[in-house]
């Protein structure tokens, strides 16, 4: 049984226990997924306080909605869906308020992956000659990520940072796999263009 299949099986067990009235089962889910959800939300919002609030809110909503969770998708996919929607709402809320945003591309990709974010995006654009990751490039990528649309930034983070499969991204964003692939291609293209402008 693959690790993914084991995770899904354990989640199903915890969901059943919770529905049976075992509150401790939900606490186990929180400890299993908190870091992963927080990591993803932080990449989307790039603000610690907002990320903590959205992560808490995602688990509160999951707790409330779990009784009606039918298990059509994996629990983790459903949880990512809740968190992504909340992060998206929060992003647009403060985008409208024009709040200053800072990006650190030195930060690790996620709680369970300490590869710097800069490397993830740099490898996406590596040429046959391979680009050397310099601080200058990292800065350009950070600026580029600010310039592309929230929709494009979101899908690059799900694919490159969270390493989600196309099918899982499709479920999280409620779009088709074909749309996922074309959006990723367009997102990479717009990131390349944004970075190109920086180098001119």
From TrEMBL:
GO biological process terms on file: DNA-templated transcription initiation
Pfam families the UniProt entry points to: Sigma70_r2 (PF04542), Sigma70_r4_2 (PF08281)
Keywords for the protein's UniProt record, in alphabetical order: DNA-binding, Sigma factor, Transcription, Transcription regulation
Protein's UniProt keywords contain Transcription: yes
RNA polymerase sigma factor 70 region 4 type domain segment(s): 145-191
InterPro entries linked: RNA_pol_sigma-70-like, RNA_pol_sigma-70_dom, RNA_pol_sigma70_r2, RNA_pol_sigma70_r4_t2, RNA_pol_sigma_r2, RNA_pol_sigma_r3/r4-like, WH-like_DNA-bd_sf
CDD domains per record: Sigma70_r4 (cd06171)
Record-level Gene Ontology MF annotations: DNA binding; sigma factor activity
Domain RNA polymerase sigma-70 region, chain residue ranges per copy: 29-91
Annotated family: Belongs to the sigma-70 factor family. ECF subfamily.
PANTHER family for the chain: RNA POLYMERASE ECF-TYPE SIGMA FACTO, RNA POLYMERASE SIGMA FACTOR HI_1459-RELATED
The name this protein goes by in its record: Sigma-70 family RNA polymerase sigma factor
Species in which this protein is naturally found: Rariglobus hedericola
């Amino acid at each position: 049984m693959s690790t993914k299949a084991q995770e899904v099986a354990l989640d199903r067990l915890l969901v059943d226990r919770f529905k049976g009235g075992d509150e401790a089962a939900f606490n186990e889910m929180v400890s299993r997924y908190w870091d992963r959800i927080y990591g993803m939300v932080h990449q989307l919002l790039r603000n610690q306080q907002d990320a903590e609030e959205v992560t808490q809110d995602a688990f509160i909503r999951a707790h409330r909605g779990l009784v009606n969770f039918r298990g059509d998708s994996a629990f983790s996919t459903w949880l990512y869906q809740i968190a992504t929607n909340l992060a998206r709402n929060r992003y647009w809320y403060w985008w409208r308020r024009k709040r200053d945003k800072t990006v650190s591309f030195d930060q690790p990709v996620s709680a369970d992956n300490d590869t710097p974010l800069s490397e993830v995006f740099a490898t996406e654009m590596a040429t046959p000659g391979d680009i050397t990751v310099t601080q200058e490039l990292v800065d350009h990528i950070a600026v580029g990520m600010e310039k592309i649309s929230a929709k494009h930034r979101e899908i690059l983070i799900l694919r490159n940072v969270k390493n989600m499969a196309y099918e899982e991204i499709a479920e999280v964003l409620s779009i088709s796999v074909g749309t996922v692939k074309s959006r990723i291609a367009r997102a990479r293209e717009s990131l390349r263009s944004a970075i190109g402008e920086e180098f001119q």
